[in-house]
Amino acid sequence: MAEAQLHDFPSLFSVKGKVAVVTGGSRGLGLSAASALLQAGASKVFISSRKSKACDEACAILNSLPNLSPGAAAISVPADSSTLEGIKFLVSEVKKHTDHVDILLANAGATWGEAFDRHPDAAFAKVMDLNVRGVFNLIREFTSMLEKQAKSGEDPSRVIITASVAGLGIGTLGKQGTYGYSASKAAVIHLGRNLAVELGPRGITVNSICPGFFPSKMSNGLLEMGGGVQAIANANPMRRLGKSEDIAGVIVYLASRAGAHVNGAAIAIDGGAMWARGQLDVKEAKL
């Protein structure tokens, strides 16, 4: 039957020749995502974070991967995505290498943990500014480059926002409450839904990924306070925490032809942990 003849299935999960920009790409989930995109065939992946040395080191790791396409490269572009000036600088630097972008991963983010009664206004503002306002500015400033080669419907350009399951449910409460972080991730998920409808007709999909606990610089403190990696892993329905492949697979799916008709989604990547408990305390927290 015709329905069984999937068009060019071998290329379904390929991003061959695509150009990607990854903010917060020098470590953690951003670095895993960048690695996945390069190994899935991307021709250029721009790695951006505030620290120049970290970007350079990440690119050295990525460019030493053994299975990249001929000529594929990770390119270091240090920039501060928390400011409009930093984002404009990032765009201008990317334009020195390419006239278009196919995949934009808005991954840069910050958190702050403190008890409710003494939670600082400045910390709340800083987290909201980078995690929501910064994402909005990043997408707006890159839209013209995302539109350049977008083919609406068949091969749209992709925006992927790194949110969190803390934006889908409840995050960390108590003495290390991450109130601004949880609120910012809920906000950016809904921002993504709005932009999915706004930008879809312009050939750009917008989706959010919502990781649970992945060992990282941002989450390690909470993991330790929650009883350690093994204790939190044992509480997960899958009996483990997230790992690089879990992020890589979802990123490649959303960025490839396989995800061309997914728009406005928020995909939880937490092994089902969010549904296994009700209100979260620090021992059950999600980043």
From TrEMBL:
Pfam families, per the entry: adh_short_C2 (PF13561)
- Highest taxon listed in the record's lineage: Eukaryota
Instruction: Give this protein's Gene Ontology molecular function annotations.
Output: oxidoreductase activity
Keywords attached to this entry: NADP, Oxidoreductase
Where do transmembrane segments lie in this chain? none
* Stored SUPFAM superfamilies: NAD(P)-binding Rossmann-fold domains (SSF51735)
- Name the family the entry cites: Belongs to the short-chain dehydrogenases/reductases (SDR) family.
Q: What protein name does the entry list?
A: Oxidoreductase
Protein source organism: Podospora australis
Source organism phylogeny = Eukaryota, Fungi, Dikarya, Ascomycota, Pezizomycotina
